[in-house]
Amino acid sequence: MSPKKSRALRKKEVDYTEKELGEIFSSKGFVTPRSIFSTSDLSHSVDKYGLIDELGLKVPVNDERADSPPNRFNVWSPMHCQASAFLLLHTYFVEICDYFEVAPFQLTPNSYGLLALLHILYRVLDWHPSDALEVHYFFNIKSNHASGYEGFYHLCSYSGGDVLKSGVSNLDRYFSSYFFTNAIKSEHRSFCDIGCL
Fold this sequence. Notes:
Elements: H1 3-11, H2 18-26, H3 39-49, E1 74-76, H4 78-82, H5 91-100, H6 109-124, H7 132-138, E2 139-143, E3 153-157, H8 171-175, E4 179-181
Antiparallel strand pairs: 1-4, 2-3
């Protein structure tokens, strides 16, 4: 599906439910594997990352997939928490995902590490908080299509330098190990196709 057509579909979200949009994008190659995340994995993550019951955590069952989560749920993984993107997800992260028109899970954990670093740098230097436009000034969003991970994106600097590149090094580990939460309030829950930038 072309970026132009997918953006046109997303603009019609009032006409389509999240599930219908998920099915549209899934039919174009956005089918994620079933989660290997178990109830014991969830218990371990709750202990390790201090997740609480109020986050509405749920282990995927049957055919529930990351590309089209069940109603009112978003997708998250322990790898995201490990990269400093804890739940409740900071509004800073949500605003950036909404700006780039991706579901929060579509952005690689390493990208969240970069965003957290930038946010902390601004605070240490006593600058105003960085926003999505400033993040876009420093970073572009790139598709992981070439790596074989359709529907996932990472941040990289415009110069392509290694200093400011999030890469995709831990994508394998979170691609199929995820859980659902209703604690992320973002515009997009189902996977979105923003094209191969």
